Amino acid sequence: MIQIELDDHSLGACAVRLEEAVLNSELAVFPTDTVFGLGGCAFSRKVLDKLMNIKPERSSKPTAVLIDSLIRLSQFGGDVPGPKIVHLAETYWPGPLTLVWRAASSIPAEFLSQDRTLGYRIPNSELLLKVIRKTERPLWATSANLPGRPAPRLFSEVDSSVCEASDLVIKTRTLLSGRASTVVDVRGKLPVVLREGAISEADILHVWKKG
User: Fold this and answer.
1) Is 116 exposed, middle or buried (0-12, 13-18, 19+ CB in 10 A)?
2) Domain hosting residue 63, numbered range
3) How far apart are CA 35 and CA 20, in angstroms?
4) Is the pTM above the cut of 0.85?
5) Count of structural domains within the chain
6) Are 113 and 61 in contact (CB under 8 A)?
7) What angle do the packed helices 11-23 and 126-135 form, to 10 degrees?
8) Which CATH number do you get for residue 108?
9) Which of 7, 63, 122, 155 has its CA 20 to 30 A from that of 109?
10) Is the bond leading into 94 cis (omega within 30 degrees of zero)?
11) Interhelix angle for 83-92 vs 201-210, to 10°?
């Protein structure tokens, strides 16, 4: 396990090392704009196996995918999102909004929920956006906590066993927001808030009506 620290002077070096981890299907701990995340290259069997060793309960839940643009939402969703979805995304991305949308038929079922959906988000993180754009690969990211434990806002809150089971650990002394993203299913005529987080359900509905 390799451990490095992210600060104002090491952004470039951290990005390069995380890019290598993504391209090599390594499992990494990294700060996001909300909490410390655990993940790596999306749709990698190797990464998924490592992730399941730490968080086996994830196998029964939709997988969140970090992307860098709305174009990726169309690519991985296999369909062009409508104007209301686009308006919602443009209002809150990059930021703490996860949109549940269809998955393209080219994505193997083993990486999807039973209804073939994924949760997509553009993170408000310079580090992660650098890595996604450079590697041209989406990232899987779940909170870097053990089952039943709160999501870590400080690196000191990340359990040592999570770090030891990872190939790369990027720590920072910064206190993260700790507010999970709001998860919204946008496949129907009206948005369905599956989890209210940093963005309120009232705000989601207000923006949707204006879209």
Assistant:
1) middle
2) 2-210
3) 22
4) yes
5) 1
6) yes
7) 40
8) 3.90.870.10
9) 122
10) yes
11) 130
